[in-house]
Amino acid sequence: MENRDQGAAQNHACASCKQQRRKCDETCEMAPYFPASRYSEFQNAHKIFGVSSIQKILATAAPDQRQAAAESILTEGNARKNDPVHGCLGIIRGLNAQIQGLERELHIMKQHLELCKEKEELDGKKKPIKRRRLAA
Amino acid sequence: MENRDQGAAQNHACASCKQQRRKCDETCEMAPYFPASRYSEFQNAHKIFGVSSIQKILATAAPDQRQAAAESILTEGNARKNDPVHGCLGIIRGLNAQIQGLERELHIMKQHLELCKEKEELDGKKKPIKRRRLAA
């Protein structure tokens, strides 16, 4: 029975234990954060951080923050895999460029809207005021 | 003379050699990318990557890309220091939230502008058409 359980545990080893070719059971502290389904992502993270750094980051986070910490570790690993030179900085720069583009677009749009409103005031709003004055 | 040169090199050890308490001279491959002035940033990066990973990232980058790679390594170290749980992912999520806010603002602005233009058409453009017809 014990052997069968161990076998099952090995088959369902978490990404970290699979990477280190270790047995994985319910006492494994990495298993809740790095399931086998994220093995290739874990490998990306492992390449740049190493297991000890990953464990250290998880250990210094509060228990309810460990899932978020694991997610950030996998994101950095994936980013470095996709862009070995720039890693996350490539994503950050891309997003910053997108923000600058949107801010420029918004600025132009505001100018258009101001012009449109000025024109609207010139065209439409003077007439009712005049009418009201005449009526008084 | 040799001792004096070594002394000078030690005083100007790059961030990596300073961190590892090694002598640093003009043959040091880390010195161009991690000057002593960025020592504390290097320490942040060292804590999560370790020297061997940093060297590996630099080595796999083309020579003209190594400065960019070093910058990304320091950025990730700083991000993890500032936000030990989320690291760069915290920055990425913040920027994504900023983008969503700008896109919402832009969408609203576009609706305002459309309304303004529709009103402008209703108020102003019909009259010149009538005048033109009368003139013909």
From TrEMBL, chains A, B:
InterPro entries, sorted: LOB
Metal-binding in keyword set: no
Alphabetic keyword roster: Coiled coil
Protein's UniProt keywords contain Glycoprotein: no
Domain called LOB: residue spans: 12-113
Coiled-coil ranges (or none): 92-119
Family label: Belongs to the LOB domain-containing protein family.
Protein known as: LOB domain-containing protein
Species for this entry: Prunus yedoensis var. nudiflora
